[in-house]
Every structure is written in C-alpha cells, then in structure tokens.
Specification:
The chain folds into two domains: 64 residues, Orthogonal Bundle (Arc Repressor Mutant, subunit A), CATH 1.10.10.10; 161 residues, 3-Layer(aba) Sandwich (Chorismate lyase), CATH 3.40.1410. It has 253 residues and is α+β, with helices and mostly antiparallel strands.
Length: 253
C-alpha cells in the first residue's frame, strides 16, 4: 500500500523473496548498510525492517556473521481437516515421527465431558504426542477420544501410525468436519521441554472438536505449535454478514 511505512515495504519485499525461493534456507541477507542504499532509506529504517523479519521468524541474526534465512515454516491449512502426518506429506516432508508422551484412560470431569458431549465420569482415551520432522519437535498434540467409540485404541502404537487413518480404516468411522479455535499463548515448563524452546516462548494453541459424518464428536484436540516453525493458512470468501463462518473473539484484558 502507498501509505505503508518504508520498513514494512522492505519487510514484505523480503517475505515475498523468501516465500518464492529467491532467498533459500541459510542464505545471507544483505547488510543493513546495503539495504539502506538499495532502498534509499536510513540504516535505522533498514534495521527496523530486519527486526520485523526476526520477530516474525523468517530470519535470524548470528553475531559477527550476519542475518540468515531460517528454516521454512510448516504451513497448516486451517480450511482442510487432516492429520499432521498427511499435512507434512503434502508439503514434501518424508522424515517425520511422533514421540508418545501420554497414553492412558481418563475419567471425564465436567469440562472434558462437555467438550466431548458425553456424560461426566465416562471413560476417555488420551493420546499425547510430540510431532517431529527430522528429530526437530514442531508440535505437541493431545487427542481426547471417547473410549466407548474406540475400544482398544490405547493398544495401538501411534508413534508409527496415523491416528486419523486408524479411526477411519480400523474403526470404520468417517471423519467429516471439525472446529478450531486458534490463539497465541506462552509455553509453560512442560511444553517448553517438549518443544525444546525457552520457557514462556510464544506458541500457537489450536483446540476444538472433530466430528464424524453423523455429527457426533469423536475427538477433542489440544495442540501447541512452535510459532517460529509453523504458520496457519485459510482460504476465505466474502458472504452475507449473517452467514459468516468465522467468529473473532476479543479476549478481555
């Protein structure tokens, strides 16, 4: 936009160049001095543009070496309901694995029962996994499933298998739709350890129910994603205000 500050224009220029592959992973960006000359701005403006790229996870500064493009972010398409493994395969990642951190049966309290639309004290199967690419942790996912729908599911090794494929192919349950609430929070000590990040580091939090083709809730997912390695994408279209499918909730201070 014409009225955008110069540092935003420079930032967006480099984001486009990084996304289209002109600047590949680990490539060196021009120095702030060269940026100021190239874009005819002050070094302070050039530095501010680079600061924004660092904050948004596109580049990192390495002392006495320069500013380098970071690893590509994983793109999570929020418009498509799919498992983590399938999403990685679509983006060309072949080496991915899961580390099991929870595999147990719970008794639903009132809150969990409401999330799964079951009665309090019913049994719930909890499967928690760290999702990795080439041994790098990207996400922590907790899947809560009504045990009565999936007997014996805790006996399956989901470090090697897709949960969604198992639900559909072993339990003959069609995964039809889901809801997501996506927010940004801060990692606690446990999540920080799992994701190998600093305690209190920003993370993307995704939670919501998954439905079968009968409209029954078959899963409640709670997931934490590394904000420096994952992005979320949605395809939107304009509709009547009365029919909008996206709600924005503003949290009270």
């Amino acid at each position: 936009m014409a009225n955008e500050p110069a540092y935003i224009k420079i930032k967006n220029y480099f984001i486009e160049k990084i996304n289209n592959g002109f600047y590949e992973e680990d490539s060196l960006l021009p120095s702030e001095r060269n940026l100021s000359i190239k874009f005819n701005v002050s070094r302070m403006t050039a530095r501010k543009a680079v600061d924004q790229l660092v904050k948004e996870g596109y580049v990192e500064r390495i002392e006495r070496k320069g500013t380098y493009v970071k690893k590509n972010k994983i793109i999570q398409n929020s418009s498509v309901l799919s498992g983590f493994s399938s999403m990685l395969k679509r983006q060309g990642y072949k080496s991915n694995k899961s580390i099991i951190i929870e595999n147990k049966e719970l008794t639903a309290d009132n809150d969990l029962a409401e999330k799964l639309n079951i009665k309090p004290n019913e049994k719930v199967s909890l499967i928690g996994r760290i999702r990795c690419i080439e041994d790098e942790p990207l996400a922590v996912e907790y899947a809560y499933l009504p045990s009565k729908m999936f007997p014996g599911i805790l006996d399956i090794d989901f470090s090697q298998r897709s949960l969604y494929e198992t639900i559909e192919n072993v339990y003959n349950t069609k995964i039809f739709s889901g809801e997501q609430i996506i927010s940004v929070g801060f990692s606690d000590e446990k999540i920080s350890k799992y994701l190998e990040i600093e305690n209190g580091y920003p993370v993307v939090i995704n939670n919501g129910p998954t439905y079968n083709d009968n409209g029954s809730i078959i899963e409640y997912l709670l997931a934490y994603y590394r904000i420096d390695r994952c992005s979320f994408y949605s395809m939107l279209r304009r509709e009547d205000d009365s029919n909008l499918g996206i709600n924005i909730k503003v949290n009270k201070q």
